Amino acid sequence: MVALLAAAALVDPWGLLRVTTLRWAVVSTAIAVAAVAVAVGGYRPRLPRPVAAVGVGTLALVGVATVLADDRATALVGHPRRNLGLLAWVGFAAATAVGAALPWRPRIVGAAVTAAGLAITAGAAADLAGWSPGGADFAGGRVGGLSGQPAYLGSLALLVGVAAAG
Q1: Residues 153, 124: contact at Cβ < 8 Å?
Q2: Rounded to two decimals, what is the model's pTM?
Q3: Paired residues of 78 in beta bridges
């Protein structure tokens, strides 16, 4: 694992090329560190039962699909072309649990949403200006920004926009 991360860092130190996984390695490491810090700090996730049930059900279904898949390795780790693997879904669940365990601080959440919105906007503006921070070009000049895919950029902008409006 260390050799894989080191190779990705040497080839693409900023994790901007679409062929490397350094971005996901950084995100996964941050989630894992946050989950350990939350567990050591004695915090417990406070998710509503329906949300927890949907999360557990989703992980169970994705786990079964991974076991039954023809290509289990890809089902486990995903594929760089829009396919998330089981590990990504476990990471999403861990991030959700960490967020639900932390004491609610509306100002911190507001600042985080604002920072995310600024980063999304800066990446999209750079893409419009001709520099593709995600390392990808799309037909018709569509903008992908830091999300890499135009569809992901739209989804992310919608989520952050709704959170910012809240």
Answers
A1: yes
A2: 0.60
A3: 84
- Secondary structure (H, E, C), the chain: CHHHHHHHHHHCCCCCCCCCCHHHHHHHHHHHHHHHHHHHCCCCCCCCHHHHHHHHHHHHHHHHHHHHCCCHHHHHHEECCCEECHHHHHHHHHHHHHHHHCCCCHHHHHHHHHHHHHHHHHHHHHHHCCCCCCCCCCHHHCCCHHHCCHHHHHHHHHHHHHHHHC
Residue-wise pLDDT for 69-126, tens only, equals: 998 888 888 776 667 788 888 888 888 888 888 777 777 777 888 888 888 888 888 8
Which pair of tokens denotes residue 119? 């980063």
Neighbours of 82 (CB within 10 A): 10
Non-local (6+) Cβ contacts of 123 within 8 A are 133, 134, 145, 146, 147, 153
Give the span between the Cα atoms of 130 and 137, in whole angstroms. 10
